Amino acid sequence: MPAARSKPSENSRLDEAMLSVWRQALLEKAKTVRLGEQSYSVRQTAKRRLAQVDFDWEGQPLRGLEQNPHTKSRWAQLARKGANVMQFLANGKYIAVVADGKITHYSAGQK
User: Fold this and answer.
1) For residue range 40-97, what is the model confidence (pLDDT) as tens digits?
2) What is the 3-state secondary structure (H, E, C) of 2-70?
3) What span, in angstroms and rounded, lies between the C-alpha atoms of 73 and 34?
């Protein structure tokens, strides 16, 4: 299980964007997420029907992916207990997770 640590973000606007994507996709069950003037479709993964949102942040493509509750991670354990958990990826690497409104940033080199 990868370790993650909470730390103050150097980019609180990115944190606000991730929280907004998490809230709209998982809490509001929106079919479309709005960030500023842009709209992004909320899709469902083929196998597990998990919410997935691809969006751009300052020119960088990011993905928000609902946590699969059927894995062995601590985040999956929270999801099994009813928490709303979404992982965020950049360039295929996990950068942060939002669990019930709290952001945890991954350190460089960690998943």
Assistant:
1) 999 999 999 999 999 999 899 999 999 999 999 999 999 999 999 999 999 999 999 9
2) CCCECCCCCCHHHHHHHHHHHHHHHHCCCCEEEECCEEEEEEECCCCCCEEEEEEECCEEEEEEECCCC
3) 29
> What's the topology of domain 12-105?
Calcium-transporting ATPase, cytoplasmic domain N (3.40.1110)
Domain extents for the chain? Answer: 12-105
Q: Are 106 and 95 in contact (CB under 8 A)?
A: yes
Q: Reduced to 3 states, what is the DSSP secondary structure of residue 78?
A: helix
